[in-house]
Design goal:
Layout (H helix, E strand, L loop, with lengths): L16 H39 L9 H10 L1 H35 L1 H15 L3 H12 L4 H24 L3 H9 L4 H36 L8 H10 L3 H29 L1 H9 L1
Length: 282
């Protein structure tokens, strides 16, 4: 880990021994970001294989890792299509939740009246089980993509609102006093001070919401006349006792969630580099 204590002075010669040691350390850190997760997946696969072999678990209950990989190969085209369908649902619902959630969070942070009126309502709506709402969405919006996007929206909307409100409310008082002393306009204080200060907390909510969005899409794809998506593939294969392709779809769903999560991590490092520095120091 690179900290201010071991980071070389910018004036150091890159070709010096100390400079080479530091850059080798940075390289090892970047390699570990890829290698260590792969090691974790390899250990998981080994434990999985040993469990199936040691306890003689039937394939219809828990397939061999090799059978799952074979299902990937034989159903790659179908799985790719279903993954794309689920990805579109997740992104559409997530983006809609970000847009609507940002507007509501902004209104809550600006007006105490709006906060007292809306906050309790949002908490109550979030407590409603999403599985119970899924059939109603089909009744309201019919079959197709719209009810799935709506359920994704409902699943990830609340953490987005909470994180944005928390971030905007956590601006240090001295920053607000500075803006007032400079007679900055309220919108400029939001853009220049409150929003940048809120971004680390906002990204925490976005990353939580992204994983919930994938779950919401899968829940929406279970039943209710759905004939597409990874959730439908898992349900259909499991109902036929074909656990190997079902596990392949589950694994692909996990890969999709990981990719979306780390896409947000990359965006966070691009837009909020100072948060990464603070975390490294701490």
């Amino acid at each position: 880990m690179v900290t201010p204590q071991n980071k070389p002075d910018p004036s150091w010669d890159v070709g010096s021994a100390a400079g080479r040691r530091w850059y080798r350390g940075v390289g090892r850190g970047r390699v570990s970001l890829l290698v260590l997760p792969l090691v974790g997946f390899a250990v998981l696969g080994g434990v999985w294989w040993l469990a199936v072999a040691a306890f003689a678990i039937p394939e219809y209950e828990l397939p061999w890792p090799g059978a799952v990989l074979s299902s990937f190969w034989h159903s790659s085209g179908y799985l790719a299509l279903q993954s794309w369908i689920t990805l579109v649902e997740v992104l559409e619902g997530f983006v809609l939740a970000v847009v609507v959630g940002s507007l509501i969070a902004l209104a809550i942070s600006v007006s105490p009246i709006v906060e007292r009126t809306v906050y309790a309502l949002l908490v109550g709506l979030n407590s409603v089980p999403k599985v119970a709402v899924a059939p109603l969405l089909v009744v309201w919006f019919g079959f197709g993509v719209l009810p799935k996007v709506a359920l994704v929206f409902m699943t990830c909307f609340f953490p987005i609102v909470i994180s944005i409100v928390s971030g905007l409310s956590a601006t240090p008082a001295e920053f607000i006093d500075l803006a007032r002393s400079l007679e900055a306009k309220p919108w400029k204080a939001y853009v220049k001070i409150r929003l940048p200060n809120a971004l680390p907390q906002v990204f925490v909510g976005l990353k939580v919401a992204m994983t919930l969005a994938v779950i919401g899409a899968v829940v929406a794809e279970f039943g209710n006349g759905t004939t597409s998506g990874l959730g439908y593939a898992i349900s259909a294969w499991s109902g036929q006792g074909m656990t190997a392709p079902a596990f392949a779809a589950i694994a692909l769903l996990a890969v999709l969630a990981i990719a979306l999560f780390y896409a947000l991590v990359g965006l966070e490092r691009l837009l909020v580099p100072w948060a990464r520095t603070v975390n490294s120091v701490s």
